[in-house]
Amino acid sequence: MGAYLRELDTITGNRKGQVKGAPEAEYEENFERNLRAFQPASWREVPFHWFETAWKRGLIQLTKTEQEEVLSQARVLALEEAEEEKEKAGTFQRRQIEKLIEGEGLEERAKTIARKLALYQKFYQNQQT
Fold first, then answer.
1. What is the residue extent of each domain of the chain?
2. For the chain, is the Cβ count within 10 Å smaller at the N or the C terminus?
3. Whether the Cβ atoms of residue 49 and residue 77 lie closer than 8 Å to each other
4. Could you tell me the pLDDT band of residue 17, with boundaries at 50, 70 and 90?
5. pTM of structure
6. Are 60 and 119 in contact (CB under 8 A)?
7. CA end-to-end span of the chain, whole Å?
């Protein structure tokens, strides 16, 4: 939701005197309409913060098996992304990416990808079929 709020602040010009909580209320009020109107070409275009809101509202549901499958797919994608970045990176950045791959950073990236991927697969791909 933070990314959405920053985007909203940019659009509205962060108006002075605006009632606190108004962006959150607007986000909540318009979420389902925005979710349905958005037509991503791939999982990469899906805002990761939408997953949590859609999950809480019961708009998507995943079994434990589905959750594990999506996370497994996301781990592969995260590794592929890191390897692509590593190929393009300079020496210093390459070392940082190698540390990311070896450490817990890759798992965090995979979890973010999993949120986007799950929403894309369960909500958007189901609408297309």
1. 38-128
2. C
3. no
4. very low
5. 0.73
6. yes
7. 28
